[in-house]
Predict the structure of PBP superfamily domain protein.
Amino acid sequence: MDENSALTPQEVADILKIAKNTVYELIKRGELNAYRVGKKVRVDVKDVEEYKNRTKSIKSDSHLGNFNERSGAGSLITEEFIRSGGFVICGQDVMLDILSRYLQMHPHGIQALRAYVGSYNGLYELYQGNVQIATAHLWDGDTGEYNVPYVKRMIPGVPAVIIHLAGRLQGFYVTKGNPKGIKGWEDLKRNDITIINREKGSGTRVLLDEHLRKLGISGRNIKGYDRESTSHLAIASTVARGGADIGIGNEKSGLQVKGIDFIPLQTERYDMIIKKEDIEKAPFKTVLEIIRSREFKTELEGIGGYDLKDLGKLVAET
């Protein structure tokens, strides 16, 4: 993405994994540069990157400080917060922001901090004890299963409970009208195709790499494979602007971007992972109560883009 490209506040919010209102607040406080085009607010990509780099500069020499650097969370997660008993929910979907709000408002709830990191890193931090809840949508190409094989491998010797949140449709973002006639994974073998990729550790990146492995395709042979972006919306926007022929992401995000067609490929399982030793503790019981409530489900239904028929269902214990 060109560093001088103009982003809307919503696109900035999706890149930073924050609410749009928070973007306006950052602009108001002078922490994020912006300008107006008529009545519309716009932010340059380079200013978003400068903001991210400034927040990353607040680190600790400890392992928890390294977590901030790896996750891109910057000052959002501090060593002091975690050591003081902070409750951290790890993952990138907006439903987790809604869950955090419900948790804060619940009579027996708690204020939760959000860590906006990908599935792989989230499981790693759960294993290390740095977060209380992780979420994942990691597809295993050998078994066709989501998440369970990864939880078993990445949290060894620690019993865990996997709770289903939602089904989400994953696929290709292509330019409106699909001028290159792209149909599926096999098209990645073509030499006239350029992609925009997700960051390492995200469930979408794992999905791509597993399919490439099964097809015997090396990422080195795909144009754009090393170009990374950290949100579905930013990926779709790049494709819409002609910066790539293919981006991979969920249907819900792609529909927010003009000039994009969505090619469905597979339905993924988005799950919540909790250590079994924690499941009967008060905050965790409240979390489960919330996600199984009619109110929470109704709000997600209003957003759209989720298959919620198994919301709150126990998937597996490891």
